[in-house]
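Hi D.,

Good news: the full-assembly prediction came through. Inputs first.
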Amino acid sequence: MRAAVKAPPSYEKMPMTEETKSKYSKTGDRIFRLIAAMCAMMAFVIIIGIFLSLVHGSELSLKKFGFRFLISQSWNPVTGEFGALSSIYGTLVSTFIAMVIAVPMSLVIALFLVELAPPFLSKTVGYSIELLAAIPSIIYGMWGLFVFAPFMSDHIQVFMGDHLGFLPLFQGPPMGIGMLTAGIILALMILPFISTVMRDVFLMVPPVVKEAGYGMGATTYEVTKDVVVKYGIEGLVGASFLGLGRALGETMAVTFVIGNSHAISASLFEPGNSIASTLANEFTEASEPLYLHSLIELGLILFIITFIIQAAAQIWLKRLNRDVGIR
Amino acid sequence: MKLRPKFQRKLVDNSVKVISTISAAVGIAFLVWILFEVVSRGASSLNIAFFTQPTAPPGIEGGGVANAILGTLIITTIATFIGVPVGVMSGVYLSEFGRASMFGKAVRFAMNVIMGVPSIIMGMFVYSFMVVTMGRFSGIAGAVSLSIIMIPVIARTTEDMLRLVPDSLRESALAVGTPYWKLTLSILFRAAKAGMTTGILLAVARVSGETAPLLFTALNSPYWPESITQPTANLTTTIFNYAMSPYADWQEMAWGASLVIMAGVLATTIAARSLSKES
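Then the structure:
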């Protein structure tokens, strides 16, 4: 027969004096927890609020243009014809240029920081690259318009026109401002975000896996390509997604250099517009309700695109179960 | 399997190493280039009037951006007073009450998503619920839009920093009968002080350089800020308006203002980072 074990009196059942009762009073904790939960609720309030206010604010153009808004290229405040195609095109093209430059460059910078540089250099270079992310975007705009655009038109675009001018992509007058310049500046702005996450991903690869590769006589490049990148491919993709989300919504720097024309042209030297740059330029000038609603619908499109990309990146990165990136 | 010649493999390896070093150098070169241009072009327009006079019409001698500097300080301060308590309390919720609950996970997810929403969208959001309702652009609307950008950044850093505090500290405080709110405010916050301060300073630095959300909310004004319910002058929108203007003297002022805002943001960022490194 088992000996009867007497259960210890539970915490709640212990006799309480008046003094201990007040000490263990839970009212304060309940209020505290409620306040914290209400603050946390703000996250949902903000997201739902943004969505509802943008849908409500774009009522007129949603009704009038419907799906046609997405595929119409006209943007004419005088006749009241609005379509988002040129803005969407400009957003996608400038972002695409930025990604084509920033992703490979971030990858090799991360390689430099983790595998090649001695610790001191790695720290300094990493810190400097992160500082690029701290510079306000309006500074990129100033620098882009007054310094980088003239540099592009005097040197880079002339050179590209001479040697690659047979491609329709690189034809036209070298004006400095335009799609290509906007894309390059965007690349510079998202570079720190992507390279920092990629560096963190590289650092997560267990040394023993890399050492096994080196032990087989592989070179640094071979270990990186066949071991590190394969091990961390999910993180690298997630890093690129984060950069993509940033590039799509970047406003001020693009507004300064993209040229703000509602035309779709094959050449990257020609001016264009992005959703964000159109909003920044025209929002306070829009006097007609339909004009204003069309602009807000542009904002709605941008919000939906970035929301999907951010959500996808979060879900994707969550599989890594680690926090990475710039804080 | 056919082995590639050793020479070829070494060549590829070395060229990748060279490319990767050059890329890092290019990144730094751009940083130096931007810093150099802003400092050299901005320094010439800095003088006493720049910091003491309000903005002047183009062509008129003198004038500064003092009203814009003051406006930016006011807007950022109000944004901080709204954003920090909400952000910190959300962080407390995530770390102390909602670590593993569905609600906590959903909040964490939503915060991360908000961090990636373009700041110009925040401007439109606040425009539609404050500017339209109040009937005019106002400094307070600008501050609210900036605070919305701050909240997720502060919430996530606060959560991370509180999680670093060992559970044994919580348990020993609870064992002697400390209520949870007191434990959080006077023990956890104290233990995580350095990290939380860094997070808050980084968030403040980031929003003080924001332009896009202010375009539709605080707008801009050529006068001294008198009331936060009126359009309020601020540095970043002033830079935008001045740079886009055809007047050479305004463009010079824009460079001066760029230098001021960049120096402020970078100094705060560097200070914040060195703070967390010390602890």
